[in-house]
Design a protein that fits this description.
The protein has helices at residues 11-22, 34-43, 60-70, 85-93, 106-136, 147-160, 176-185, 204-212, 229-232, 248-260, 286-291, 297-303, 320-334, 344-352, 358-372, 385-388, 392-397, 401-415, 420-427, 431-440, and strands spanning 3-7, 27-31, 48-52, 54-55, 58-59, 75-80, 98-101, 166-169, 194-198, 237-241, 262-264, 271-273, 277-282, 306-309, 341-342, 377-378. It is of the alpha/beta class. Strands 2-1-3-6-7 form a five-stranded parallel β-sheet, sandwiched between helices. The chain has a five-stranded parallel β-sheet with strand order 9-10-13-8-14.
């Protein structure tokens, strides 16, 4: 927009400034009093104001404070013929962009204006991005009308308004991180950091350093101090995904953070203190993990102040058409294609499938369909063979969840030619989880 307003009771000076500033390509308006300036602001948005300090109907220094309250993205530069330190200090405290002398600082005005406009544009862009992020991760972005998902959303909305610790339970791919983001964005920490970490993606030593940071020299390769993710998330939220994979030694350290907000960096002796909301998630049965000695009961009780269970996709098949349509529109946009029409037979096949990988698997299937499709519609032929032949009777009687999951892992490993790191990435699970599943299902290499 680049709209500028000059407020000064000296008409000749206003005209001179207007001519100079117009040559820079800015759209300039003028007013002789603060009252006229306020009336103009009520009619049109303004990016930057050049305002005299002493005007017939008031002080420009006081005017700054009022304008910053009503128009937070408008920057104000004050001009004065009789500068003094006290006015300058008060002007900057009130939120003025700068405070300059008339005449002596004329050569500074144009560069100053460019910087002021840059700040305005950046501030507005940041606000726009924040709104987009808020919309993307709000509860309204969670699709589904089924009672199970609506119940989970209702509980999550209530807990979002508090700082309570939340434990999200559900199979891989059910949308636990989406829920964590929505809880963060709907809470009083939404303007602070949201940091997600997969606890199964690191070794014990690396995970401890990632979460809590380290001092230089703490171990080989630690050449300088490093802030941990808890420090980075201070004031905000940290999301600990696959918390059931956290080594026992680190569980004790996490428990201390939950109880006191304190921890010690690797190789340090001083205590660090943070104010962080913790949201954890797992696809494991933590009660069984406690019985086998793999998870601390006291940590479980601290984490599960609020437990929210997310339903698997096979229990909310009525939501599949809406989810599929949404993903088809997203991937059509990313690939510069027309949004395809999802044929009835295509949707029915999706609803018959058991979905061991849940929403993440559905998303991947739709992406594949859109990329490979050359028509304006998606038919059953656009689906993988296993989805084309699926039927509800055979899935319930033959493919129990464990069997379906084993088949899924075998197919992904075959696709990656045995590359377990790539297979874990494609399935959206940690490498540790994949190794555990391979051992559990006795999958041959």
């Amino acid at each position: 927009m680049n709209k500028l307003l000059i407020i000064d009771d000296e008409e000749k000076l206003r005209q001179l400034l207007k001519r100079i500033i117009n040559l820079e390509g800015f759209d300039v308006a003028e007013a002789g009093t603060l009252k006229e300036g306020k009336k103009f602001l009520e009619k049109e948005p303004v990016d930057v104001i050049l305002c005299d300090v002493k005007l017939p109907d008031g002080s420009g220094v006081d005017f700054v404070k009022n304008i910053r309250q009503d128009y937070p993205f408008t920057e104000i530069i004050l001009l004065t013929a009789y500068g003094n330190v006290a006015d300058g200090v008060r002007a900057m405290r009130n939120g003025a962009f700068d405070y300059i002398m008339k005449g002596d600082d004329n050569d500074k005005i144009i560069p100053l204006l460019h910087r002021a406009f840059e700040k305005v544009h950046l501030s507005r862009k940041v606000e726009q991005l924040q709104k987009q992020v808020g919309n993307k991760y709000s509860f309204d972005s969670i699709l589904g009308k089924s009672p199970a998902i609506q119940q989970a959303v209702t509980i999550a909305r209530k807990v979002a308004a508090t700082d309570a610790t939340v434990l999200l339970l559900g199979e891989t791919g059910t949308g636990k991180e989406v829920f964590a983001q929505a809880i963060h964005q709907s809470g009083n920490r939404s303007n602070k950091s949201f940091i997600a970490v997969n606890c199964s993606a690191f070794s014990k030593e690396l995970l401890e350093s990632e979460l809590f940071g380290h001092k230089a020299g703490a171990f080989t390769g630690a050449i300088k101090d490093k802030k941990g993710l808890f420090e980075e998330a201070n004031g905000g939220t940290i999301f600990l995904d696959e918390i059931g994979e956290m080594p026992a030694e680190l569980q004790a350290k996490l428990l201390r953070v939950l109880e006191s907000g304190e921890f010690i960096k690797v190789g340090d002796t001083k205590t660090c203190r943070v104010n962080v909301r913790i949201i954890a998630a797992t696809n494991r049965d933590l009660q069984k993990e406690i019985e086998t000695g793999h998870f601390r009961s006291d940590l479980f009780y601290r984490l599960s102040v609020f437990q929210i269970s997310l339903p698997p996709l096979r229990e909310r098949t009525k939501d599949i058409p809406a989810l599929a349509s949404y993903f088809a529109a997203v991937f059509a946009g990313k690939t510069n294609k027309l949004v395809p029409v999802l044929q009835k037979e295509y949707l029915e096949a999706l609803q018959r499938y058991h979905w061991p990988g849940n929403i993440r698997e559905l998303k991947n299937i739709i992406e594949r369909s859109v990329i490979l499709n050359e028509e304006e519609k998606l038919t059953i032929k656009n689906l993988p063979v296993e989805l084309q032949s699926a039927n509800p009777q055979s899935l319930q009687s033959v493919f129990e969840l464990a069997v379906a999951e084993k088949l899924h892992i075998q197919k992904v490993l075959s696709h990656t030619k045995g590359n377990k790191t790539e297979a874990a990435r494609l399935m959206g699970i940690g490498l540790t989880t994949l190794y555990r599943k391979i051992e559990e299902y006795k999958i041959e290499p």
